[in-house]
Amino acid sequence: MGNLHVYSLHSLVLFQLMLVSSAQTQTPAIDTSDLAIFVFGDSTVDPGNNNYIRTAMKSNFPPYGNDFVDQTPTGRFTNGRLVTDYTVSYAGIKDFVPPYLDPKLSMEELLTGVSFASAGSGFDPLTPTLSGVISITKQMEYFREYKARVEASIGLERSQYLIKNAVYIISAGTNDFAINYYGTSPIRRYTYSIPRYYQFLVQQIQKFIQDLLDFGARKIVMVGIPPIGCLPIVITLNSNLLDKFLKRQCIQRLSDVAQGFNQIVAQKVIEMERNDSKLYHVDIYETFQNIFQDPKKFGFDKVDTGCCGTGLLEISYLCNPKSRLCTNISDYVFFDAVHPTERTYFLLFKALSSTIDIILQGK
Fold it and tell me: Omega of the bond prior to 103 within 30 degrees of 0, cis?
């Protein structure tokens, strides 16, 4: 059994430093010239793969991308960049992680890493079917296809080196609970208790990680899920009429479910690490929890509603060019009723930066 690399991101001192930090990141003092980053998961790390499939779960229109380069709505479910974009920039690899399904990607872009993630996806095979998006299994198939393309271009030896030395980031699970288990059509809740659903999801995660290891991956990062009871849409759908509008508070019992899930996944990461691999579980739960408990300490004015529209339910096409947009996006933790603003993602990245150094160096 290997040693677990778990990083709890709740240092208040660190967050105070973040608030006065420039958005310009510094390249770490390590060689990343041959490094690639591959990303799997949901909307937290999808830079626009859903643009290329038939689904209603899209964000390639304003006001999404309001603060991206040239105000371009790329398909990222936020006003700007994602944590993974900040990560590749920090590592000196490139400015942004592109979506694998973009047909215009050059081989150079492919060689430095892509995202296979799909907004609306999850570890439960049922979750992506609810919105017609790319399942985790299909994302793995795309990775297999990617390997074949790269091997045909640069040869077997170089492609094996690339795969072995790359960093793999997995960020999913929120939709399995927020949309699937506790959503408006809670099919899984009728057949699974929470402990059994934990077990079911962990089995899916274990298979996915094992597939990556079998493909040659050696540095794998599992990102935990946030307090799902604090997502604006979850508050709206799980509050009584008065609390929906006047006394909006996190639904603690749902956040407790997320915390329990994180703990079990972290334990599974311990069990799966091998002598020739490094598996990391990154805890973002405490980071969000600190913000929710004292938003003004971190420079936020609005924590329980999104910036787009009413901020209570809007996501995807409900957040559109005709929607009202808040005056100062950076005052909000959330851009729409589910997804963080670019500023929130930047704060998460800054909290992760020391951990990212450790991961990039393979320690």
Answer: no
| Residue 331 is among the residues annotated as catalytic for this protein | no
Q: How far apart are the first and last CA of the chain?
A: 16
Which tens digit of pLDDT belongs to each residue from 170-204?
A: 999 999 999 999 987 778 999 999 999 999 999 99
Predicted TM-score (pTM) of the model is 0.91
Reported residue count of the chain is 363
Catalytic-role residue among 159, 281, 336, 353: 336
Nearest Cα residue to 205 out of 9, 7, 40, 1: 40
Task: Tell me the C-alpha distance between 302 and 22, whole Å.
Answer: 22
pLDDT tens-digit series, residues 315-329:
999 999 999 999 999
Cβ neighbors of 350 (< 8 A, separation 6 or more) are 14, 17, 18, 21
3-state secondary structure 250-283: CCHHHHHHHHHHHHHHHHHHHHHCCCCCEEEEEE
Catalytic site residue 10? no
Residue type at 11 in one-letter notation: S
Q: What is the largest CA-CA distance in the chain?
A: 63
The letter for the amino acid at 281 is H
| 5 a catalytic residue | no
* Residue 266: closest CA among 2, 1, 10, 4: 4
**Predicted confidence (pLDDT) per residue in 126-138, tens digit:** 999 999 999 999 9
Q: State whether residue 133 is helix, strand or coil.
A: coil
**CA–CA distance, 277 with 63 (Å, rounded to integer):** 41
* Better pLDDT: 5 or 324: 324
Q: For the beta carbon of residue 247, count every other beta carbon within 10 angstroms.
A: 10
Q: How far apart are CA 239 and CA 304, in angstroms?
A: 12
CA separation for the pair 65, 75 (Å, rounded): 8
* C-alpha distances out from residue 197 to 117, 169, 176, 188, 231, Å: 22, 23, 10, 8, 21
Burial of 95 (0-12, 13-18, 19+ CB in 10 A): exposed
- State the catalytic residue, choosing from 5, 43, 281, 304: 43
d(CA 286, CA 8): 7
Ordered domains of the chain (ranges, CATH): 5-231+250-295+350-361 (3.40.50)
User: Which residue out of 42, 171, 339, 353 is catalytically annotated?
Assistant: 339
